[in-house]
Amino acid sequence: MDFQGVIVHWYKENKRDLPWRKTKDPYRIWLSEIMLQQTRVEQGLPYYQKFTAAYPTVFDLAKAQEEEVLKLWQGLGYYSRARNLHTTAQEIAYNYKGTFPNGYDALKKLKGVGDYTASAIASICFNRPTPVVDGNVYRVLARYFGIAIPINSTEGIKYFKALAKELILKDQPGDYNQAIMEFGARQCKPQSPNCKLCNLQNSCVAFAEGKMGELPVKLKKTKVKKRYFNYLIITDNEKTILQQRKNKDIWQNLYEFPLIETSKEVEIEHIAGHDTFLKLIHGNAYNIRLFNEELKVHKLSHQHIYTRFWIVTLHGKLKSGTVIEKVKDYPVPVLIANFVEDFGF
User: Where do the HhH-GPD domain residues begin and end (predicted)?
Assistant: First the structure.
């Protein structure tokens, strides 16, 4: 049996029972693919189930408010995916009358849909021979064929895409694409691949040369940026202040407490004398204390957020703000959601 045959046979025997594998509905395939970008299946599955229950069709998702979509997405991370999801749902519903385009090029023009997602939808839903190349596919191909070209280099991206295109089964492209991704996720794993029970063992270059741990090759990541966030939890015990993040930055359109970002860890004197703090206090008397002595570190792909929460209790009343009981209704970053839970809002 050839490489492709072994992969597809393995898939039929070992594939996980997942809801999006029981349909060829482009809406549900698209939803699952967007959710599983940079997300493990175990983490994404509950969100897929919540979204399909809340929005059974693309029209339901299109009609939803963005804040509602962001709230349902809360905790899954990479929130631009949720914003793009909502925008594309509206485009499909209103400009395409609810029908997804059936070709790779047209799919790729949709917001938030890149090469991988367009290839997946086109092959699974419309039987187009468009190869998917994700981390699992890179790993399987690099190990099996003994390819040492860095997978995140320009040369590597082109090389692996061309190889994947050459290998794809034109009579069952959807099954093959799902098979090789599943094989990489469960058999040819990043750590401790199950080589002893692998039907590709006899023809795998990495196994023959003992290079499973060396392949695939990946260029070093860019340096992780450190950011220091100081959140001001200003309260009169009835209301607090929430603000929406509007800048083109992480967590765009999500809500948070007023923020003072600094270049390093700072003490209470710096916070109490900061212009942002003084404008929010409006000359009122207050008490201020630090909620967490130890910095909370929230790790994103290219930046680490070092966070402190400063509790500011006013002696007077806030003229405007958010009723404390309503705080949990707003879509917020998981960092804020965890604080709200710990603080008891």
Answer: 35-186
